Amino acid sequence: MNDKRAIQMVPSRKEQQDDDLRPEAETGIFIRSRLKITLGLIMFAGYCLLYLAPLPFRPLHMPDETRYAEIPREMLETGDWVVPRLNGLRYFEKPVLGYWLTAVSIRWFGENRFSLRLPSALATGLSAMLLALLVYRYGQACTAWLGAAVFLTSFQVYALGVFNALDPIFSLFVTASLVCFYVAFQTGSRRAKRVWLALFGLACGLGFLAKGFLAFAIPVVTIGPFLVWEKRWKDMFTLPWIPLGISLAVILPWAIMIHLREPDYWRHFIFVEHLKRFASPDNKGLHSGPLWFLLPYLIGGAVPWTFAVPAALRGLRNGGWRDSLIRYALCWFTFPFLLVSASKGKLGSYILPCFAPISLLIATGLIQSMKEGDFKPFRAAAWTCAAIAGLAGPVITAIYFLNLARLPIFASDETWKWAAGAAALVAWCGISLISARVKRMALSVGLFGVAPVALMLSAHFVLPRQAFESRFPEAFVTRYAGAIHREAGVYSTNYLAPAVGWILKRSDIGILGRGGELQYGLNYPDAAGRQIQTHELRRQIGDRKRSKVIILLVHDRRYSKLSKALLKATRLEKADGFVFATFEPHMDRSGCIDLYPRLALYRNLPGYAYPKKEGP
Question: What are phi and psi of 510, to 5 degrees?
Fold first, then answer.
């Protein structure tokens, strides 16, 4: 016998996993090598279509998008990349990395919606890629692709991925840190382990510069229970030192610079923005909510894959929990979710880092269900989606044509929006029906993920005009920006001022009434005169010595109260839930400053007549 033929190669773990997915298997989900590149290109094209193409079309949302647009703009304008400022005022809610990335995007692509939202979209895509690489390294190729698809098509991931906010950037660094730690945990080589631990520390440091101490808290509450579960709790005393050193090296340069420039930064950032937000029962204005507050965001945010959770759990029940990666994903999802739920202050976007492990668990469970031939739970999920989308279409149609809503949702000239939204729901319903009926499970899962894509894309275009009222000031302010002279005094509310500053390219907007999130910066001595109350604004408008125009940009409902206390505006424009009011200096008929300021107070009364001019 030939010695070469007698040698039998021992299959690697990866080959053994692929052997379970041969074309002869009933599941039919084997991914051939020649299709991997094609599948990757399809995934990339889908990502570009969903996440990059729609970025310029939807107007900026207030207050988050306009706030995180104005801070980087002021960084570029002033050249100060150390101290974050909003409307020219100190703004210490977050560190600077997210602002830096947006500022770089603005410098490269200009001051527009695309550049503002690009960092969030890229961060979401990179998070999906890291998740896929992790699963591909320690799992199966098909699970890696499916996990990335589940992540990118989850509603909350998509909503934040095309939104100008810091959460997708922060979530990217959390995902990167936990991926690097798991690779270090599984690596046997000491040198490789040190490299991965260093990368883990780098990601933690960057996450801190993006959003703060949660960049350390989430890995700690994830890794600690996981090491105990794996019976390697002693590693908790040996693994942290390299990451900690690298994190400090990343954080300290900016931390020292901000302390030297603004000594009160760390007091405010630690005690107000972290400890008070997390633990203080007196959490007024800091997004307080009950313990279960984030649960609806979790359930709704994972749609459409929420309906596939029962099928995934059935796939994981037979031995899935014994896999180290599954245990890690379970800790990654559970303990960070409990951490942010325990906080007194909470927002739905806080759970974004939990969607990567959820996607991993769902993908692994569905693949295991396919291998076992257990198709019924997933087909039930597809039928459920079809039913929900199928019912939503007729309901919207009935509301539109029968005028069942208290107020009309769509205006008379917005029929195309209703039609486009209804068509997207029909597409979701139809594709879900096909997904429920096809015999090949792999095709069924693919169709299930593609089904809501039309609805996700249409969301950028089909919002009714009334949904823009009080939330999207971009078009309204832009309409009157040309009428606002650079020397004019512009006043607005703390809620609207960042949007006004972004559109007018000004950082000196006066704040009328309460300071809100700007109050900390308004308390500094160099911000004296930036905040004004209604009676003070009335006094300025009636001042006979005033030579500059006063502009007031507020919400319509706010102006309805202010108008009772202010003098009559020279020009008043209302639209989209906003008011543009102009107060010209008091002039007599010759164009001189009014010599009768007392009479000027009564000009808004019927029967008022200009006094006769005396002298030559």
Answer: -75, 145
The SS3 assignment for 262 reads coil
- The answer to whether the predicted template modeling score (pTM) of the entire model surpasses 0.70 is yes
Tell me which amino acid residue 98 is. Answer: G
The torsion defined by the Cα of 305, 65, 59 and 102, in degrees rounded to 10, comes to -100
Q: Which range is least confidently modeled, 27-31, 305-309, 547-551?
A: 27-31
Rounded to 5 degrees, φ, ψ at 554 are: -140, 175
Q: Which residues contact 151 (CB under 8 A, 6 or more apart)?
A: 127, 128, 131, 157, 355, 356, 359
In a shared domain, residues 489 and 416:
no
Q: How many domains in the chain?
A: 3
Q: Which residue has the tokens 């699963």?
A: 135
In a shared domain, residues 483 and 455: no
pLDDT in tens, 371-393: 888 888 899 999 999 999 888 87
Q: How confident is the model at residue 121 (pLDDT cuts 50, 70, 90)?
A: very high
35 located within any domain: no
* Average pLDDT of the segment spanning 67-89: 96
Q: Does residue 389 fall inside a structural domain?
A: yes
HSE-up of residue 418 (Cα within 13 Å, Cβ side): 16
Q: What is the pLDDT of residue 605?
A: 37
Asked whether residue 584 falls in the same domain as residue 439, the answer is no
Query: What are the start-end ranges of the H helices in 212-285?
Result: 214-229, 241-261, 265-267, 277-279
Verify that 543 and 583 share a domain, yes or no: yes
Q: Verify that 304 and 409 share a domain, yes or no.
A: no
For residue 606, pLDDT over 50 is answered with no
Full domain range(s) for residue 500: 474-600
Strand partners, 374: none
> Please, what's the b/e burial string for 388-413 (b: 16 or more CB within 10 A of its CB; e: otherwise)?
bbbebbeebeeebeeeeeeeebbeee
Asked if residue 312 and residue 166 are part of one domain, the reply reads: yes
Q: Which amino acid is at 429?
A: C
- What are residue 7's phi and psi, to 5 degrees? -75, 125
CB 175 within 8 A of CB 131: yes
Same domain, residue pair 459 and 532: no
* Predicted confidence band of residue 462 (pLDDT cuts 50, 70, 90): confident
- Regarding whether 254 and 347 lie in a shared domain, the answer is yes
The pLDDT of residue 34: 62
